[in-house]
Design brief:
single chain; about 120 residues; mainly beta; 1 helix; 6 strands; globular
Length: about 120
């Protein structure tokens, strides 16, 4: 797989509430950055997301990182497909081996309006 679609930044939540206040998380901590490549959203993946009231908008492949979870958020900065730019909720993170035998991570993404969206 060629990681030539753009740059994916993974953001991790941090507590930003004041002591004694209601807990509030903000995605202000940059956790990981990688070049990414686009993959096809397969029919099974699409309908599985629909069954869980989610929308699988994109599937991307990035360099291997076993620490990425569905609690993180992803921001895409594409090189060509500017419609894909924006913030995404991670629906699934899978550790895979690409066709060249390299360890990679596949992320299934759902577009969100704001990176702090639950």
């Amino acid at each position: 797989m060629r990681l030539d679609s753009g740059i994916a930044t993974i953001w991790r939540a941090e507590l930003t509430s004041s002591p004694g206040g209601m807990p509030k998380e903000s995605f202000t901590k940059e956790y990981f950055k990688s070049y990414y490549g686009d993959k096809t959203v397969g029919i099974t993946r699409y309908w599985t997301a629909k069954a869980h009231d989610s929308q699988a908008n994109l599937v991307i492949e990035i360099q291997r990182n076993a620490g990425i979870t569905t609690a993180d958020r992803c921001q895409l900065a594409p090189y060509l497909d500017l419609e894909a730019a924006g913030h995404y909720k991670i629906l699934q993170a899978q550790l895979v081996i690409d066709e060249d035998g390299q360890p990679m991570t596949d992320l299934t993404l759902e577009r969100i309006d704001c990176i702090d969206e639950p």
